[in-house]
Amino acid sequence: MMRLTLDDLAEVVGGVVCDPADGRRAVDHVTMDSRTVRPNSLFVALPGEQTDGHDHIRAAVAAGAGGYLCRVDYAAVARGGVAVDDPGDALRGLGAWLRSSIDPTVVAITGSSGKTTTKDLVAAAVGAGRRVVANPGSYNNELGVPLTCCLLETGTQVLVAELGARGLGHITQMAQIVRPDVGVVTNVSAAHLEMFGSVDTVAEAKAELVAALPADGVALLNADDPRVAAMAERASCRVVTFGTSPDANLRAVDVRLDIQARAAFRVRDLAVRLPLPGAHNVGNALAALAAAEACGVDLADAALALAEASVSRWRMELSTTADGVLVLNDAYNANPASMAAALVTLAAMTVSGRRFAVLGQMAELGTDADGAHRDIGRRAGELDLDGLVLVGERAATVAEGARQAGLPAGSVAVVSNGDEAVARMRDWLTAGDAVLVKASRSVGLERVAAALHTPASRSPAPGQGP
Q1: Is pLDDT at 9 greater than 90 in this prediction?
Q2: Which residues lie closer than 8 Å to 269 by C-beta, 6 or more apart?
Q3: What dotted CATH number matches 4-85?
């Protein structure tokens, strides 16, 4: 973050420096976590689910914080306080001010799935020709987005901002902070239906990004998703479409997958190769190329950068255990569309052994939850996987769908938790096999993927003799 004195900070956020003698103190880094404080940090004291940040002010100052944002009733806790009515609102105000002061080109990204991967790919592609700041991980909510703005420094040319939503109006509010010049919508599907109620409402929420773009902006829309393509009607700016559809402005052709299901394709006269598995990532890569072009980056340079791109953890993360098992860790989150895409990716991999999946619950699907889980089971069965380990809530429903699609009962295991899933997979897996691990974030199946890298003795798997 650009360096600010506490006097300057107070003016920006409409606060008061608690002790006027502290006004010349300076901060150049923002955090909400007292454990990540470093010298000259600004600690933002926010209430959380488990604890209140105000209880950690003294620890933050002791760790070297140059200042802290707090409610008025905590003004005298330690030196360096800036008192405000609401620290969260103050953080959002600071983020908006920094975005305006640095004035980068802003690429904002939303969609039901693939947002973070697309954000990472956009950052890589645009970074081929520009100085870029992007959300760390999935900092895509009303706190994570302004925190991302606090990473801006003098000289930053492009801000890549992922925008999530758990209700109507959320994207509009975050767009007011980042004021996007370029907006990317990846897709619309059944995600967070517990909050939205219907896929049509999800589409309405995602379209808020398109509506927020200025007249001289650019809307980048997925031509392969009818709900996204229809958002062109909401745009008051130029629209560029991407996809494999013949009418896409930026179209992928000759899509091929290698033995690890990593895609290669051609766009215009350029060859593009992706470092991560999944044919569904072709659309994400096209979005990144379109964003790079909108930011003035040469498309050939952007394509080369994509080949070396790295994405956030637990998204189509490939690794091989010491025992020769290929682990596809896509455990960060899940909804029906992303779960189906992951299963198709697993089925597309060329392996010498067999293919298994460890699947957990897809959360926040509301009244459609049972049907969605049963459909995923059917999809796994149709793909002729060699075995499923299904974890926790709604595991039995997924198993029902898998058996309906013809997967033998002996190839489907329903377990209560991750430890049981690890034990079952250790029994089944042998060298040359591949296993997908995927569930919603709350299930925590990334621990299963990590545990599979610990060798263990095994007993016969489905289809094997003693």
Answers
A1: yes
A2: none
A3: 3.40.1390.10
